[in-house]
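Table S2 (continued). Query chain:
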Amino acid sequence: MHLLHVLGAALTWSGPGGVPTLARNQLYLSALVVVIATVLGGGIGLVLGHTGRGTLVAVNAANSFRAVPTLALLTLLVIYPPISVRWDGRLASTIALTVLALPPVLTNTFVGIREVDADVTDAARAMGLTNWQAMTTVELPLALPFIVAGIRTAAIEVVASSTLAAYTGYQDLGTPIFAGLNTGNRAQALYGALLVAALSGVVALGFGALLRVVTPARVRKGRRSRGLSPVGSLVPAGGPADTPG
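Corresponding output:
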């Protein structure tokens, strides 16, 4: 079936299997996963970065999570009934995608907190701030560009990979891809892939704009004057996937 015919078909854009509904489902699942990863990974990275302890734990845990194949983990969860039957398949997808999203959030948060000048933190404590107040009112705002960069990376990866949720029966933009592959309908699979790519691009642009908002103007100008890209790597391999700029 011709791609244009598929895109123009009424069922493609309306009803429970229409593009708006599938895209909304995919964004819902992706947002849920990113929020969970931000709370878990961001919280752990914040505490470890503030205390200066557990550096090896943070780095090794992040690298270990990166090594876990999302599809393989999802398959294991799907064949485990107590998980596979929960939330109409969403629980298995949520767990597998959260494992995918945790590394960039945890690593960027950890590195962002560690990058805060120790003199600034010491000055905050000298003014009478408690450790909790120094962490939340001084270190966290200064590390925010790093943290947002990590969340941005996680969000893009999750949106692009959440099509795998269709493997569990969840209805999202992965549904036409799987259906097209199973029936040999290449046009259907192609339009699903194009929509996922477009949605990932929109998410990337949205978080890119947010990253510019939370990054101080003087930092952006400094990077441009040194010929650095808006979002580039400032740490060796194994560090955060994105860093602010």
